[in-house]
Amino acid sequence: MNTAKNEKKIAELLHKNCKLSLEQLATMTEMTVDEVAAAIDALEASKTILGYGAIVNWDKIQGSETVTAYIEIQVAPQRNRGFDRLAERIYQYPEVKSLNLMSGHYDFGVIVEAANIQEIAMFVSERLAPMESVLDTSTHFVLKRYKSDGVIYDTKTEDDREVISL
Where do the domains of the chain lie, and which CATH numbers do they carry? Predict the structure, then answer.
């Protein structure tokens, strides 16, 4: 396997399970432990691997209630700067968990988390909407999470109530 294929395979494996040991990764990629360690070091140095973390179902952790919203933002790109300068301003806010330049009617797709709906409403009305290039926003609140980042959050539960027919 060449270096690019090795790095891609390691990145895929770590993305699925960042708890894999160097030894496990070596076995799965048919590389030595030293080669795996060097590949991971290279991926981290090149900012290909940006961090490690667990996918958590926060609904199951007491005291961690948050509200998540998807916000679509339509903007007028700034002369000589395009979308980048505005994106830099938006992603600096701690409420912003994800920001993407999109195709379609809206230019940015933003995922925001806050303690409640009112905080998200204040964020949109006091921080996003007043920005000079923002033309329109549309906010959508997450009601229930079924699957995220390839992981199913909740399995079906059987309804054990007795069926009554007339």
Answer: 3-45 (1.10.10), 58-144 (3.30.70.920)
